[in-house]
Every structure is written in C-alpha cells, then in structure tokens.
Amino acid sequence: MSAAFPPSAPHIRPPLTVYLAGPRGFCAGVDRAIQIVELALAKYGAPVYVRHEIVHNRFVVDSLRAKGAVFVEELDDIPETDQPVIFSAHGVAKAVPATAKARNMFVLDATCPLVFKVHIEAARHHEEGLQILLIGHAGHPEVVGTMGQLPEGAVTLIETAADAENFVPRDASKLAFVTQTTLSVDDTASIVAVLRSRFPSIVGPHKEDICYATTNRQAAVKAIARKIGCLLVVGSPQSSNSLRLVEVAQRAGCPSACLIEGARDIPWADIEGLASVGVTAGASAPETLVEEVIDAFRARFDVKLETVTTALERIAFNVPRELRPASAVS
Question: What is the rounded distance in angstroms from the CA atom of residue 135 to the CA atom of residue 121?
C-alpha cells in the first residue's frame, strides 16, 4: 500500500500594513499640463511639440510620446511648423517665448499658474528696485525659468542656509525673496529665518511660494513617518518634489525611505520582516503607478491597507482658451 502524504500546506503570506499617504500624486498644475498636451493632440493632431518634459515622470512622458507628442530640449530642435509648441509646467525664461514669437510658432503655455505667480512677484520686485534672492536648486528647470524672467545678474540663487548666511547684498534695505515651488517646507523655513534675521526689512511673498501640493504631500508623509519601517515614494529622480518627500520622511523619523519609479523598483530585501511600510507619490506621478505598487505588495503579503489623509484638494486650473470647448469660452 502506498504511503499517504498529507496535502501540502498553502503558502502563507506574511502580514503587512501599508499606509497610503494622502494627498499624493498629481497636483492641479501637473494635471493641467498633461491635459494641455492631450487636448492639443485631439484638436490639432500629431505631432505636438513639447519643450522639455511636460512634467518630470517617465511614464507620463512615454505615454504622451506614444500618442504623438514630440519632446525637445530647445526650440531649435523643432522644424518649421504650424503645429502647437507647448512649454512645460516648470515655466521658461523670457527668451524662450520671444524666440517662439520671432519664429511665428503657435505656442500653448503649460506653465503652472503657481510658478507663473512667482514670475510675476520677481518682476514686480525688480521694477521696485529690489535685489532679488531666489531660494531654490541650481539647474532645476523652474529655477532656470524664474531667473530668466529678469536680466542676467538681477536674481541671486540661495540654495542653503549657509548661502543665506554668507550672502552680501548691494543694499540691505532693498531686498526681496521668492522661492521655487517644490522645496522642502522645513528647509525653506530655515533659510527664510536666516534671511529675516539678517535683513529684517526683506520683502517676501504675501503667501509662501511653495505650492499647496508640495506642502500637503510633505505633511501627509510626516503623519505616517513614525508608523512605518520604510517609505516608498513613487516618482522620478528628476522630480524635485518627489526627492523632497524622501528627505522629509527621513527627518520625520522614518528609518528608511527611497524613491522608486514603479513596482519593478521596490527594494524587497529592505521590506522583508517589516510590519508596516508607507507609500506616497510625487506631484507628477500618476495614481496607476501607485496601484501597481500596492498590487505588487498584495502578491507577496497579506496586505492591510490604511489610508492616512491630512488634507483634501479641490483645486483645478483652466487650460488655455484655444483648447476649451466653444461653449466654455466667454
């Protein structure tokens, strides 16, 4: 008689609590920028030219490229065309639209309205004879665009509190500052504190330039940082606001935090043995990438999903008039 073997035990997946930060993902400026490209493609057909990545996310860029968007770094890379030319959400220096106008290009500007607000502030301070300091990161497209609103040398970039300590003004009574919209709230506050301490009369924005979405996503990360063993930030390595979320988590007490572009980048070795992890997404990362990350966890763990929401966002920005339905244009 053959031996009887007991049925094999089913594979038992270890438990894992996943804290999902909210808000996360697309902000109103990113959503508007993507809409502009998609609506332009629908109305005018391909190709639609986009100067610089419309937003810093490879998944989004590749998706739009597959639909007929052509991404270029400079206007010189665009042939003579009547097709739309779109400026990215990060904003551009004044020389860029001037060049486009000289070439009779049909421009659709996807600059985030909150970035445009910083441009207006900088221009107003310059007209008032103030020396302008821009708190931001060198080389970031938004910083390049903001500094390019004014003549060369009119804006001084301040990247750190040490820069603020060492800055020597032309006239300490005639100073103003603006900031990049995607900075760490805490880092920026420390830099502003130095500037206000050294230059009490310095003029700042009526409301902080750091955008609502950046602020909200950082607050949500702080709310879960001490509950988790690791935070995964879905976003692009080029995305300033995504990189800041990693830093915010680490400073808020999260033992480990890393940036991933999607589920394929999950550091499983760092997660094995943890009781809980957190997931969030930068302002240019689509929710579909977050869903793929959650699905990947569910394939390996018995997942308990907890959503922690610290703010509700209902902001939306209009697309350019050329792209609105006729009934919506008054």
Answer: 13
